[in-house]
């Protein structure tokens, strides 16, 4: 039976799937859905590595996960308010310390991970804090206006050991002028990091943005766990 320690901090829900072993990696996963159970279950089915998974939900998705404000990218969309810096402060100053009180020993290393806009946030956070040594951006929203240029013109807070990227092979097949850039941008960003001698990979999955989200998330976390 899968059990998790669950509590709230600053209106965000924190679920901790804690490893019983001492001093193992801790994976932080920002989640759109209310429960991280499906991601944890998928992970346990594909890797035998020991780790703790901390899933943060009930996020202000278009605010917490976005680095700066942009207007709607389509007629039926909502604007993104660009509150990632404030959320990252809550994450690093409140959520992470509280979470690690429930984890055995000290983290061997920490990773920041996420799907969609949370994949964008995972990469952005590497430019704002040095507490993460690995990252995984699954179907990350790297189409975000000017974000590729932000990466190319700013310095990482620390050189991460591993970064994982993935997309669905249909995600860029759209008329939306922003979304259609996602694969080209992701490939260029992955190449940029590889040239800095960061261990990277870009994986192309079958399907659109919404296919097999939990499994794709688990595959990305598995890669950074097993390398």
Describe the 3D structure.
The chain has 227 residues and is of the alpha/beta class. The chain has one domain (5-226): 3-Layer(aba) Sandwich (Rossmann fold), CATH 3.40.50. The protein has seven helices and eight strands; from the N terminus they run E-E-E-H-E-H-H-E-H-E-H-E-H-E-H. It has helices spanning 37-46, 61-64, 84-100, 117-125, 147-152, 182-195, 213-226, and strands at residues 5-9, 12-17, 26-30, 52-57, 110-115, 134-138, 162-168, 199-205. An eight-stranded mixed sheet has the order 1-2-4-3-5-6-7-8, with helices on both faces. Helix 1 crosses helix 7 (213-226). The chain is globular, with a radius of gyration of 16 Å. It starts with a strand and ends with a helix. The mean pLDDT is 96.
Q: What is the spatial order of strands in the main beta sheet?
A: 1-2-4-3-5-6-7-8
Report, as a whole number of angstroms, the end-to-end distance.
Answer: 28 Å
Mean pLDDT: 96
**What is the CA-based Rg, rounded?**
16 Å
Largest sheet: 8 strands, mixed
Secondary-structure arrangement, i.e. CATH architecture: 3-Layer(aba) Sandwich
Helix/strand order: EEEHEHHEHEHEHEH
Structural class: alpha/beta
Low-confidence stretches: none
Q: How many domains would you count in the coordinates?
A: 1
Helix percentage: 25-40%
CATH topology: Rossmann fold
Query: Quick one: overall form?
Result: globular
Strand content: 15-25%
Q: Provide the CATH superfamily.
A: Alpha/Beta hydrolase fold, catalytic domain
How many β-strand runs?
Answer: 8
Number of helices: 7
Q: Determine and state the CATH class.
A: Alpha Beta
């Amino acid at each position: 039976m899968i059990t998790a320690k669950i509590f709230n901090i600053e209106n965000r829900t924190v679920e901790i799937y804690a490893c019983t072993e001492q001093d193992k990696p801790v994976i932080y996963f920002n989640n759109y859905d209310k429960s991280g159970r499906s991601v944890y279950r998928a992970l346990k089915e594909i890797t035998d590595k020991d780790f703790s998974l901390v899933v943060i939900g009930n996020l202000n998705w278009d605010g917490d996960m976005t680095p700066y404000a942009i207007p709607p990218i389509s007629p039926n969309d909502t604007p993104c308010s660009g509150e990632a810096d404030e959320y990252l402060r809550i994450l690093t100053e409140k959520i992470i310390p509280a979470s690690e009180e429930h984890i055995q020993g000290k983290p061997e290393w920490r990773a920041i991970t996420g799907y969609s806009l949370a994949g964008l946030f995972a990469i952005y956070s590497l430019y704002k804090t040095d507490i993460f040594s690995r990252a995984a951006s699954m179907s990350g929203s790297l189409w975000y206006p000017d974000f590729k240029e932000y990466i190319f013109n700013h310095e990482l807070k620390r050189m991460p050991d591993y970064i994982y990227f993935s997309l669905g092979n249909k995600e860029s097949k759209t008329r939306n002028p922003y979304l259609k850039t996602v694969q080209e941008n992701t490939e260029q960003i992955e190449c940029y990091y590889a040239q800095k001698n960061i261990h990277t990979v870009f994986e192309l999955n079958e399907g659109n943005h919404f296919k097999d989200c939990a499994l794709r998330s688990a595959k990305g976390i598995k890669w950074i766990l097993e390398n």
